[in-house]
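#structure-requests
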Amino acid sequence: MIRPRDIVITGVGVVSPIGIGGDACWASLAAGTSGVRAIDLFDARGLRTPYGGQVAGFDPRLVIRPRKSLKVMSRDIQLGFAAADLAVADAGLTAGEGTRDRFGVAIGADMIYADIEDLAPTYRRSIRDGRFDFGAWSDAIQQETHPLWLLKHLPNMTASHIAIAHDARGPNNSIVLGDVSSLLAVGEAARVIRRGMADVMLTGGTSCRLHPTAIVARGEPAVSRSFDDHRRICRPFDRDRDAMLDGEGAAVFVLEAREHAERRGARIRGRLLAAASRCEPRRPNRPPAGAALRMAIRATLAAAGLAAADLGHVNAHGGGTQAADRIEAAAIAAELGATPVTAPKSFFGHLGAGGGAVELAASVLGLEAGLVPPTLNYETPDPLCPVNVVRGGPLAGRPGTALAVNMCSMGQVATVLVASP
């Protein structure tokens, strides 16, 4: 009988509202420093809530190569590319090391919306007598739009650019399934290694929800309650929570088969024990009931051979909405009892497809430090959210295991279980 390959984490790359790089990210988590700030990527004064989890100090011109690739990279792609570079450097991987066809990429991505400035000339040429003429659009777009325009907006391009830059010629995959994209990609990367199809995988996710076209398409977050401090808007599991807050960010991990990592003398930052995904039907006007989350939690623990008592903490989806938080909390409490729960979205808001990876990075960094990251803005417990939320500062003394959870409004759930080295 062939023993399954052990999978280890040897590199962590984070580009997030709470810091660029693992050290900066963990420093913010440990200190309780929020990454929510006034949006200045575009003129946000007309938004109901002109705040979000924006990455500060990110200059893509310093990290994208070749420089001309910037013309065909949306911000989503730029963030993911930068996170992958950080992960590879953190893992100490070199360009000539190993067999390149056993080095792969799996990235979670969002739908990437077009930039207004790219479409504005076409729109203006389609105006006839003060009204938009749909018949004029097809001719106008051919004359006004750059032929490579579409490359900025294909969700698979993040994985493509990463693979080209790092000469990763192995399996390459992109997963686009909303909030669960990142954890699904991490789970798939682990399975690729366990199946023996690769020795090293770059995996994670990226997204920028702070984009005017995306906001128009998705609608603004319905933040109705007024807080004196915008950093207090996102309040997972708190009784007074009222909405999600948008953000942007990316995280990429280097996963390796243990024997490959040990052979090259790599520093092991964590272990990936198991991953699972489940789905439940979504019915009109009725949100998912939490059955998929309960099934995914059980499946993940069973695959790792662990019981609820062996779990150090849960890294919750914790979006900050009334209904979804209650469903998630009830499922976690039913399966895991009083296991401590942390909700990293309280630090930076909803990062879309990049959220799961950035949140997982918080747990990996915390396990290394022997601490559970805290949840911000949790002040008044909600009786309908019966979970043991970590607040006030990092929690010490817990087992070195963490279960990361993401949920999607369509009923999908993804989970990843990691452990300290």
